[in-house]
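User:
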Amino acid sequence: MKYRVIFTALITFILTTGAALAETGINDHKIEQHQYIEKLDKISFLPSLLPVIIENSDVIELTDGQLQKMLDWRTINREDVIVSMNEVARKRVEMKEASLSPDVSSEQLLQMQNDVFRLQREVTKYKLSCRDMVLDTFNKNNWEGFFLVLAEEEMGVALPEMKEN
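Assistant: Predicted structure:
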């Protein structure tokens, strides 16, 4: 009886957490979008910096052409990135729930973990594509402005040595 109560409480917690995550959506409010992205960033090892770059394009001193390139990349890839990140979150919840079931084998759990890894790799590929676009677009002045923005947002990154072009 005691274990049934603990098990029920644990399942309720997991389902509530999963439901809360599933209800997280993107709307038109910048603050909610930023919070959403922060939650999803825990799914990937690379930060989502494109929103920071676009929001601070004036400080970074992006030209109209540079900014348009960023906006175009976001328009083309944003939905796919978010779908992949949501799928990672869903699979992680699914795996946690399955791990509590005596009917799910260790092999099944390993396969579920492999699915999560595959999806995380997919998200990482999108983020690396964005990174490559930024690397191809930014000049030294942009980098200096960008790192000022990151320092202001307390992201804890140091300005790397820049090669002279």
